[in-house]
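Example record

One chain of 121 residues, shown exactly as stored in the release files.
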Amino acid sequence: MLTKILFTLAVIAVVFAMVRFRDRPARKPAPLPVKKTGRPWIKVLAIAVIVLMLAGTAVIIYLNWRDSHQIMQVQVIDSGSGRVSNYKVYRGELQERRFVTVDGRQVQLAETERLEVAAAP
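Predicted structure tokens for this chain:
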């Protein structure tokens, strides 16, 4: 019961303080100090670094995209029968035991099959 009374008094005190200090005229802010512009090369250097980083990022993204879209000639050889199947696959679609061909077929290799990869002519 005592905590409810103390809490109510605290809320009244906060509201009273807010009303009292709200109507005060605001003081004028202190004037901002004048900044010296003696180093304009720092701004130019910062912009150059950002442009260089963006250009490097664009080059890396392009090279990664180009490598993953290179068409590879894949031969799947069945060890038991000796049957050979040829596929064209994007390099980015090649995985350990499966791949997706250029025309959208999904191929999963069996344990007895061997995979040979070469650049497409």
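Notes: Residues 71-119 form one domain.
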